[in-house]
Amino acid sequence: MNRKNTGTRMRDKVLLFINGDAPKSLPNPEKYGLIACTDGAFHYLKRMGFPLDKLDFISGDFDSHSGSDEDMYQDKFILTLDQDKTDFHKALEIIMEKGFSDVDVFGGSGGEQDHFLGNLTVAYAFKDGMKIKFYDEFSEYYFIPNDFKLKGVKNKMISLYPFPSVNNITTKGLNWSLTNGSLNITSRIGTRNFAIEDEVSVEYESGDVLFFVGINEIEYPTIY
């Protein structure tokens, strides 16, 4: 099934479900040119009534495959047995092989926290070749380039998480700003800030930043 040529879809954008906490609400599949999930995520999509016929592929080792009610989707199965890579990693490799690089990920957080940290590490490994954005019930988060701006964020929580460090970082539009500062995972991180302007900008010289923006506006911001 090829949806890349459908005019109403974002031709280069991928929707990927992985096996963390299931999203509280499902995104609109009509926005995407490729839709995929790992085998663990397949089960919560089935429970939530996601239109499974819209999946382009389901990848994994299928150790949680439950039988006959799923057999109708076997033509979408891609078996990935490499135990040195996570299901998320292997799904991203398939997506790259199919020529896509812009991926919205649901189910990346929650559940066992080592999986969450592993998902961030996988996204870090692919950040130079792919644009990967995670979504959960609290926030959107992704790695940002050295010169980054985002509009429409006034009164939303903003966190800057060094991965593992970032140097000469300057921010604008945040309540607690940085000017040629530095962040490091072992000493100083930039979590639980909030936007006081509609637009936030971040510039830095070296390192990597994982950027979080809250989904909802906050009335009483707190710093931890």
UniProtKB/TrEMBL annotation:
EC category name: transferase
Domain Thiamin pyrophosphokinase thiamin-binding as annotated: residue spans: 152-210
Enzyme Commission number(s) of this protein: 2.7.6.2
Keyword Acyltransferase: no
InterPro entries: Thi_PPkinase, Thiamin_PyroPKinase_B1-bd, TPK, TPK_B1-bd_sf, TPK_catalytic, TPK_catalytic_sf
Protein's GO biological process: thiamine diphosphate biosynthetic process; thiamine metabolic process
Coiled-coil ranges per UniProt: none
One MF term in the entry's GO annotations: thiamine diphosphokinase activity
Record's keyword terms, sorted: ATP-binding, Kinase, Nucleotide-binding, Transferase
Key word NAD present: no
Official protein name in the record: Thiamine diphosphokinase
Lineage start: Bacteria, Pseudomonadati, Bacteroidota, Flavobacteriia, Flavobacteriales
